[in-house]
Design brief:
Largest sheet of chain B: none
Largest interface: A-B, 40 and 53 residues
Number of strands of chain B: 0
Oligomer: heterodimer
Number of helices of chain B: 24
Radius of gyration of chain A: 17 Å
Structural class of chain B: mainly alpha
Strand content of chain B: under 5%
Order of helices and strands of chain B: HHHHHHHHHHHHHHHHHHHHHHHH
Shape of chain B: globular
Helix content of chain A: 55-70%
Number of helices of chain A: 3
Distance between the termini of chain B: 60 Å
Shape of chain A: elongated
Distance between the termini of chain A: 28 Å
Radius of gyration of chain B: 23 Å
Structural class of chain A: mainly alpha
Strand content of chain A: 5-15%
Number of strands of chain A: 2
Largest sheet of chain A: 2 strands, antiparallel
Amino acid sequence: MWFKRLAIAIPPLAILLSGWLPFVNQTSLWFGLPSLIVWIGIWCLVTAPILWTALGMYTDDDEVDAAEVQS
Amino acid sequence: MTGMYVVIAIGILLIGLTGFIGRRRPAASMSDWAVGGRRFGTWTVWFLQAGEIFTTFTFLGLAGLVFAGGVAVSYVPGYLAVGYVGLFLLAPRFWRLAKENGYLTNSDFLAHRFTSPALGRLSAVLGVVFLLPYLQLQVTGLGLIVKFTTGNDSSSTVGMIVAVVLVAGFVLWAGIHGVATTSYLKDALMLIVLGILIVGVPLAFGGHSEIFPRVQKLRPELLTLHAGKFDQIWFFTSMLVSALGLACMTLPYMWQGVLSAKSGNALRRNYALLPIYTLALFLPVIVGFVAVMELKSGSNPDASLLTVTKDALPGWLVGLVVVGGAATAMVPSAAMVIGMSALMANNILPDSVDDQTRFRVGRTSVVAVLALALLLALVRPALLANLLLLTYSGLVQLAPGNLLGLSKRRPRSGLPVILGIIAGEVIVIWLTFSGLDVAHINVGIIGLAVNLVVLFIAWAATSRRSLDPRQRTDTTEARVA
């Protein structure tokens, strides 16, 4: 379970820090497009399956939220 | 040219009429009108929220930003993806609390969670004040889209008036249901229009494979973040502040989209899918790079996408692009005006007002707010320009309160949150208008840092006082409120 929680944090970190990754922030083209655009595009794409696989993990949170409502 | 005018006129009317079919008869209560009785499934919520990605900024600002910052413009899809991860985790919790306690707005949430009507009113006033220039920008943007393509001032004025009247009509009739049905049409239109742009425009200027090698040869600085206004610090802090604002639901009109969902899981599934949709934003960015290479220096950057479109496509297809642009103004405007009206009716009116009067005030506010936005767009389009700079960095100051409101360990009075918000807003306003050099750090982040420091100091001070039995009174919370 811990690796799924960790996996959720990876795309935001990869996107937020992209400006400081030297192999990303450079003038060369990947697949004919700017490397920074391709890098962020790939992580936007990868975020979806990561969140989708994590869906089942958060159903228990509904009970936590229900308890929270009572507080 | 005539074909273009016909397509624009039919398209704008069609968007408005689609809003009316959202309901068979007018909404009868504030809850039904503002959050659709909380019955929307995954796909309706998806269309509602996907629709919010595309505003007039997509047609005007995004390609324009390529002129100044090159690839720095990719902070927009970046912050959306990061924000959706945050919403995946937080939105179902906001939704559940809202359902159990009957919240319709962000201010309802804050007022109840911190037992502080004063905090509710403060956040409502900030929401309305900071969102009005953004609403006006949508109306002005629609006028500019028509003007850039037709070259005609009076067509632009007529376009703005007709669009605002239609939005007012379908919002009064159908409320959030009207926004949902227009969102279906808008998203379909956007995908068609972006498809036309990404195929038609580059082909007219030598093909896709030619664009970026030319940029690499002639303007390589546009392919990287480098020293200057759009450096790594700007990129990181702009993305962070926008993602925080999105994840913590600080934009008032987001609440209607989230609260209209029928379950927390519908929201989670929605946020798991939305990052894919953000890829569509790269299409106008690519067209922006075409414009950089093709347009003469001194061209208006904000008109770049529409200028190259006009040069590349036949009149009726340009008309279709304008209709797509009109949809990006009308649908978010409808969502914004519902959010602002709900704040005015639910949180700014005195507590003694009954539900029917609130509902009436809410609907009257729709007309008043849209009329004000239209008037400003027509008469004084630059009047609120300075305030617009504060929309995101100002509203993100509500993020600490929203996050703490979800937690069990939160201040039991609204005072620390109120003091934090005031401190954050003062810093943001001062830094925005003083022109002080902050090394390209987004002023919203600096405001948030001050906001948090003040909030935690005030929280520590008030909780120590409330633990001291000599000073504790039963009326403390009531006085703060």
